[in-house]
Amino acid sequence: MASSHGRSDLRFADWMASLPQSMHTVPLANMAIPGSHDSFSFYIDEASPVGPEQPETVQNFVSVFGTVAKKLMRKWLATQTMNFTSQLEAGIRFFDLRISTKPRDPDNELYFAHGLFSATVREGLEQISSFLSAHAKEVIFLDFNHFYGVQNLHHEKLVAMLKEVFGEKLCPVVFAQEVTLKYLWEKEYQVLVFYHHPMALEVPFLWPGQMMPAPWANTTDPEKLVQFLQASVTDRRRKGTFFVSQVVLTPKASTVMKGMASGLRETITERYSFQREAKNPQQKHCYACFQHYDRACKSCRVYTN
């Protein structure tokens, strides 16, 4: 979650530009880049139809309980309290994006979606592009990793949209270890697009999805999550790819049923964060290597010279 209270901190709006010169030639694949999960979900619309990826049980639930059901769904589907601009100002540089079409939409519009529909893709991309135009040394990663009801014509539309919105800011595919801030600044590239679909093989600026693997712990247990992340560190160090470490707890059906009215934030995010702090208020985890530390992580090469 980009922020627990929906506020951004402008000190982080230009954090890449502010890095010491010694970091300018470090491959970005070797750096810890802050990102957000279901990045667009701040915009989820309770008045929208249910997304096509939802199972029949959810569809039936909404058909019976209508608006009330959608209000409850939003409490579990919205993983962000900040829009794209606020996330960028807070330092977020990786965006997890899921794309969908709406059933029987004559305009074949593309939307962000997570259970319910969110903003249009164009609206989100233009907001990101505006930020990049004002912060010329900041670089972002767009990870298009789920597509619902998206046909070839929609993929073509999305590729054309990316070209139109970002233009020369789009970085073509090269070896991941070549991608440094120095390289990107010299070329005036600011956007890396990862695309989990065969279309990536046909377009020079679409990085194949396998270059951004994102293993998923699928647990509500914070200890199991940390163990999973520690075990995946070796994979993250593989040469030739970037890597997503998903520091995300995933509710089970039983979890949702128990906290139906409370929502994701109260049931999981705040409660489990409080439990970990109460257990050991001094000990923290380095989110680059997921090792325990008290004051500073001394084992992670990302943060040490």
Automatic annotation (TrEMBL):
Q: Name one GO molecular function term.
A: phosphoric diester hydrolase activity
Choose one Gene Ontology CC annotation of this protein and give it: synapse
Per the record's keyword annotation, is Ubl conjugation included, yes or no? no
The residues covered by the Phosphatidylinositol-specific phospholipase C X domain are 22-196
Gene3D superfamilies in UniProt? Phosphatidylinositol (PI) phosphodiesterase
Keyword terms: Hydrolase, Lipid degradation, Lipid metabolism, Transducer
Q: Name one GO biological process term.
A: signal transduction
SMART domains assigned: PLCXc
Note the InterPro entries from the entry.
PI-PLC_domain (IPR051057), PLC-like_Pdiesterase_TIM-brl (IPR017946), PLCXD1/2/3 (IPR042158), PLipase_C_PInositol-sp_X_dom (IPR000909)
Instruction: Specify the protein name.
Output: Phosphatidylinositol-specific phospholipase C, X domain containing 3
| Higher taxonomy | Eukaryota, Metazoa, Chordata, Craniata, Vertebrata
